[in-house]
Amino acid sequence: MRRLFLILVSVILPASIVGAYTIFSLPTEIEKQIVVLNYEHKGEFDYTAYLHGSYLFDDIPPPDTSPEILKNPPSKGKYPIEIIQRIGMTFTYQFVPDEPVTNISEEVEVKAVLDKPATGQEEVVLVPKTTQTGAFTVYFWLDANELASSSTIFIKADVYTTVETDTGPMFESFTQRLGIQAQGPLLEIDNDLTGTEQASFGELNYEQIGNFDYFVRLKARSPFGMIVLRPPTPLPLPSPPPLLPSSKTLGLGEPLLFKLLDRMDVTFSYHFEPDRPVSQIAEEVEINAVLENPGVWSKTFVLVPPTKKNGDFTVTFPLDIDSFNHFNDMFRTIEGEIGAPAPHDLTIKADVHTVAQTPFGPIDEESSWALTTPLEGSTLEWEEVPVESEPGTIEMSTMVPNPEKFIWLSIRQIRSLSATIASIIFILFGYLLVQNVWFKPKKLAGIEEEALRARKKHKDVIIDIEELPEAKAIEMVVQLSSLDELIKVSDNLLKPVLHKAETHRHIYCVIDGLTRYQYISEA
Question: Within its chain, how far is the Cα of 431 from the centroid?
Fold first, then answer.
């Protein structure tokens, strides 16, 4: 039994030592990232929209719905034929490109087309084909008597222009007409003296401008003498009534009618909010307008260039109706280039670069906020955006107790327990080792071991006695060669086996009347 315990403890001891080593190799503290500073970048867009005065908001009286009184058209130039000596005329032509070109040359011809009752239409060359360069003016005369012979006359100027561009020559034509009518004794000259045409060639946009002018010289015998008359001055176009400002202003989230908009004052406010004191807060803000077809293309326009700020700030910048018209023109131009309609989205984007010093290290971050509206339709629908914040943190490494648990015990507790168990097992191992080495029982002799085995095996049959009964004179003694044979005799006779231990020998016998069955084990 003692040896069995020693073997068992010998197996358990290495396991306890390995377990203790493994537990002691676990760290009692581990490195952990902890938040030492929280902060937020807060940005907010807002605006105030100023409108033109309108009947909608009761800024102007309702429109006059009474029938409009017809105005007399501007008068033509009317001159008595009898006192006209002659009429001098000029024709001026300009080719106006939107970007410089290499060379411009023209060929001009001016004719009078007369509609005579007797002979029909007749053309009279007033200015034969003439080559000109750049802007030019040609002069010619008209005979009043010849004009009076036709009920309707057209003065026609034909210009054929050649322009040298970077991509090669360009050819263009321009025609302008001026009507003259003989109405009884008067000669009437139309007041439409100027004509324009706009066109483009590749990326070159240009305008052609033609202008007739004339003067009428009267005869010396006229009641007014030999004077010169000029064309009547055309009536100026009536000026539209001035646009008065409205008393109504609109803010973020309210529907904004595009046609009533005069201007907007847009503001962007920024606030940096840490949960601990910081120093040397500085920002750089830039605000741009971004035109985009989401996911296809975008174009950026600077509204507020990069500007330095310190601490919390508010930036205000204007947007007027001309800006929105420009954005719409840009969209139409891009649509024409790509050949496909696109969503009209306008985004006002604020980018803020913030730098600050903290006890735990510097902050150097960029944040963005946006305000978006589609530019389609008659209403600007800005998305109502609340105060938006972008959170941030600063983290540091620190040593904290190891939170791992083993059978509900902490690292320190399991270390103490494992050391205690390993020590107890080691002491027990030493004790059993000493018991088995120094106090090992002496090995029994062969007959003693045999006697011990027999006593254990046949304890119900063998009886230990001090002295055997004396053998009688007539008693027969039968010597057997083994204890097993004696046991068989005992079983057959149902007699016990008597055992007497002597020095260096053991006597086993079974007595049956006058017969003694005996086995002697000697050293």
Answer: 75
**pLDDT recorded at residue 341:** 65
Pairing of strands 103-116, 120-133: antiparallel
Task: With respect to residue 278, please indicate whether it lies within any of the assigned structural domains.
Answer: yes
Task: Tell me how far apart the alpha carbons of residues 349 and 372 are, in angstroms, rounded to a whole number.
Answer: 8
H or E element: which one contains 229? Answer: strand 228-229
CATH of the domain at 515: 3.30.720
Q: How confident is the model at residue 306 (pLDDT cuts 50, 70, 90)?
A: very high
> Is 276 in the same domain as 316?
yes
Residues 517 and 459 occupy one common structural domain: yes
Query: Both 161 and 176 in a single domain?
Result: yes
66 located within any domain: no
Which residue range forms the structural domain that includes residue 482?
A: 446-522
Q: Do 392 and 248 fall within a single domain?
A: yes
Tokens of 374: 């589609």
The separation between CA 511 and the C-alpha centre of its own chain, rounded to angstroms, equals 113
- For the chain, give the mean pLDDT: 83
d(CA 356, CA 272): 10
Tokens of 506: 């053991």
Distance CA 222, CA 400 (A): 119
Q: Dump the DSSP string for 256-323.
A: EEGGGEEEEEEEEEEEEEESS--EEEEEEEEEEEEEEETTTEEEEEEEEEEEEE-SSEEEEEEEEHHH
Q: Are residues 217 and 273 in the same domain?
A: no
**Residue listed under structure tokens 């090992």:** 440
pLDDT of res. 69: 46
Q: How far is residue 208's CA from residue 134's CA, in Å, rounded to a whole number?
A: 11
Query: What token pair was written down for 330?
Result: 């840009």
Strand pairing class (361-374; 261-274): unpaired
Q: Are residues 256 and 394 in the same domain?
A: yes
Structure tokens at 376: 């389609």
**Are 295 and 373 contained in the same domain?**
yes
Residue 204 falls inside a structural domain? yes
193 and 141 in a single domain? The answer is yes
Does the CA dihedral 456-459-462-463 come out positive or negative? positive
Q: What angle do CA 115, 117, 121 make, to 5 degrees?
A: 30
Q: 289 vs 341, which has greater pLDDT? A: 289
**Range name among 56-65, 413-422, 470-479, 488-497 with the lowest pLDDT average:** 56-65
Question: H or E element: which one contains 296?
Answer: none
